[in-house]
Amino acid sequence: MKTSLFRMTWFRATCAAILVLAMLSPALPLHAQQKAAQAAQTAQAQPTQAVPQAPVLAPPPVAAAPAAAPAQPAPAPAPSSATAQPAPASDATALPADGKSLKSTVVALHELSPWSMFLSADIIVKAVMIGLAFASLVTWTVFIAKMIELSVAQGKLRGALRKIGDARSLAEAQFALGAKDSVLSALLAAAMNEARLSAGISSDEGIKERAASSFAEIVRAEGRRIRIGMGLLASIGATSPFVGLFGTVWGIMNSFIGISKSQTTNLAVVAPGIAEALLATAFGLVAAIPAVIIYNHFARVTKSYLELVSRSSGAAGRLLSRDLDRSHGSTHSRAAE
Question: Do 68 and 39 form a contact (C-beta atoms < 8 A)?
Answer without folding.
Answer: no
